[in-house]
Design goal:
By secondary structure, this protein is α/β, with parallel strands linked by helices. It folds into 2 domains: 4-42 and 302-423, Alpha-Beta Complex (Aspartate Aminotransferase, domain 1), CATH 3.90.1150.10; 50-282, Type I PLP-dependent aspartate aminotransferase-like (Major domain) (Aspartate Aminotransferase, domain 2), CATH 3.40.640.10. The protein has helices spanning 4-10, 43-50, 65-85, 99-109, 132-140, 158-164, 187-197, 217-220, 273-293, 302-329, 363-374, 386-391, 408-423, and strands at residues 31-32, 93-96, 119-123, 144-148, 169-175, 201-205, 224-228, 238-242, 336-339, 353-358, 376-377, 379-381, 397-401. The strands form 3 sheets. Strands 2-8-7-6-5-3-4 form a 7-stranded mixed beta sheet, sandwiched between helices.
Length: 424
């Protein structure tokens, strides 16, 4: 476990590693509180895009040095992702245009399972990237789509999920953390309960969880897990973990001449070396953070170092969450409505992602006021978690999403601006 004193001294200094924190691409100052839509990019990612990625041969191979260099590079990045996720091998990792594309590819690859008489479970807490692929492909093949509802406090109704499982359930799609509310699911215990009751495959969308807490696919027990590079301080690229035991159940999109075994069977065409270089730079930043957070560990494995980094981030962000909730409770206005876990005693069950609204202002108006009054960037809309918003009978919500490069000063600036908007 990382030393708390080291963490709280180290992480605030890392802000300088993110050029976009103090100003946007035009050099204009602003406060970016929309990391849930895409994190700021770390400097090591930007350097790798320019330096390492630019010199790679387009085609990997084994016969000549430039091609072999690209081959080794691509395997190295796969292994870094495998270590980040606790996967057993780099062969369990495939690269995709985005997480949404990865999940659509996966849905198509599993189409033979979705027969009449079979059913799939999706949850109302999920991002639509982990709903629409299963609805689209599953229903077209004749399978029944079952939706797992939310409870009154906007948590996933686990008893409802377990009640809807049966021996004809072939797949359950889960989120790691809600993209709009920040709520974290207890994945390991939930997947264990699912597996005890049904033979279903379990797919996890970890996009919103991956920047905030350790993710270990073997501890979770899932069959597939997807996340995005641009949410972990790197470039736009989708990553998919596939458990080796699922190999005989998949039939992905594949050009005939492409290799028919994982991970290559998942990937259409040439790999984007520039994005892979940027991803490598972002992952190496997390390794640096893990080593700095636990200097007493002389030679930890890459997997352990990633865990140390994300444990450090998780602990630091918990302090941000508690401070945000503390400031929230000081606002005495009936116009402010907050959605999600607001009990400090349950703060470990959420990421620093907060949904809210101000009576009398639609989400777009509030977003614009934050920009005009304080150059603060927040989000508006359904955040691709449209069922949560529909459940509340809203057209949209505003969302404030923090990352470990934020601090109490970020929260103070947000609430100063919020106070100004409410009072005027």
């Amino acid at each position: 476990m990382p030393d708390p004193d080291i963490i709280f001294g180290l992480i605030p200094r890392l802000r300088g590693r993110f050029p976009g924190f103090v100003a946007d691409c035009r050099g204009e100052k602003r406060l970016y509180l929309n990391s849930g839509a895409g994190s700021l990019t770390v400097d090591s990612c930007l350097r790798a895009l320019n330096n390492e990625g630019a010199g790679l041969n387009p085609m990997p191979g084994q016969l000549i040095p430039p091609e072999n260099q690209t081959l080794q590079f691509q395997q190295q990045v796969r292994q870094l992702v495998a270590d980040f996720l606790g996967a057993g091998s780099h062969e369990e990792i495939s690269f995709h245009f985005s997480t949404t594309a990865a999940l659509f590819n996966l849905a198509f690859a599993l189409r033979s399972l979705f027969k009449p008489g079979k059913n799939l479970l999706v949850t109302d807490l999920d991002h639509f990237a982990n709903i629409s692929p299963w609805e689209t492909v599953g229903s077209s093949q004749g399978a029944e789509i079952r939706r797992v509802r939310l409870t009154g406090d906007l948590s996933l109704d686990v008893p409802d999920l377990l009640k809807k499982l049966d021996h004809n359930t072939v797949l359950v799609a889960l989120t790691g953390a809600s993209n709009v509310l920040g709520t974290i699911l207890p994945l390991a215990s939930l997947v264990s309960d699912i597996k005890q009751k049904s033979p279903a495959l379990v797919v996890v969308d970890a996009v919103h969880l991956a920047p905030h807490a350790p993710v270990d696919v073997r501890e979770i027990g899932c069959d597939f897990l997807a996340f995005s590079g641009y949410k972990i301080f790197g470039p736009m690229i989708g990553l998919l973990y596939s458990r080796p035991e699922t190999r005989d159940r998949i039939s992905p999109y594949r050009v005939e001449t492409n290799k028919e075994y994982p991970p290559f069977c998942w990937e259409q065409g040439m790999l984007p070396n520039l994005q892979l270089a940027g991803l490598k730079g972002a992952l190496e930043y997390l390794l640096e953070l893990g080593r700095a957070a636990s200097p007493g560990d002389s030679s930890p494995s890459a997997r352990k170092t990633f865990r140390l980094a994300l444990e450090a981030i998780k602990r630091y962000e918990l302090s941000l969450t508690l401070y945000f909730l503390e400031r929230l409770k000081k606002i005495d206005s009936p116009r402010l409505k907050f959605y999600g876990i607001d009990n400090p005693g349950r703060a470990t069950a959420r990421t620093p992602t907060f949904a809210l609204e101000i009576a009398g202002l639609n989400p777009s108006e509030l977003k614009k006021l934050f920009w005009e009054r304080g150059r603060v960037v927040i989000a508006d809309g359904n955040h691709y978690s449209a069922v949560v918003v529909r459940h509340l009978q809203k057209s949209g919500l505003n969302r404030v999403s923090l990352a470990h490069y934020d601090g109490p000063d970020s929260i103070d600036l947000f609430f100063d601006c919020l106070d100004s908007i409410i009072s005027h």
